[in-house]
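Continuing the batch. This is chain 6 of the set; chains 1 through 5 are on the previous pages. Same settings as before, nothing changed between runs. Recording input and output for traceability.
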Amino acid sequence: MEQGHSALRHGRYSQPGQVYLITATTKDREPLFIDWQMARAVCTAMHAFSSGNEFRLLSWVVMPDHVHCLLQLGERRDLSSVVRFMKSRSAMVVNKTGRRTGMVWDRGFHDRAIRREEDILPAARYIVMNPVRAGICRKVGDYPFWDAVWI
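Output for chain 6:
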């Protein structure tokens, strides 16, 4: 029986146009993004991703040791390649910003397809409320490391 992230990949299905809730954690859950500059580096990368046509970021939040995002796949890339691209590009920016080398992200990621249109906005709210639920801030507006297309 397979263990860990390789077992998660079995059964992963990518559908063009599908909206997914994605969670990616930092290597060994290291709280890299407690550092304001490192968190801003990931935010800069997320904004850059939002301008592409391979996929569309609907909502995201950068937490101290992980990132949640709500993304809609385009026509040309599958989910695994989109997440791999996002993690690779953001790792380059984070390593450059922090004058560091090595892995930023754990291998693999968690995904959940949002099947019904009416579940998209609640999923986005779940994402942006993450810092409040974690006790990092009292209200969403107090936390700077998130975005949503509806705001």
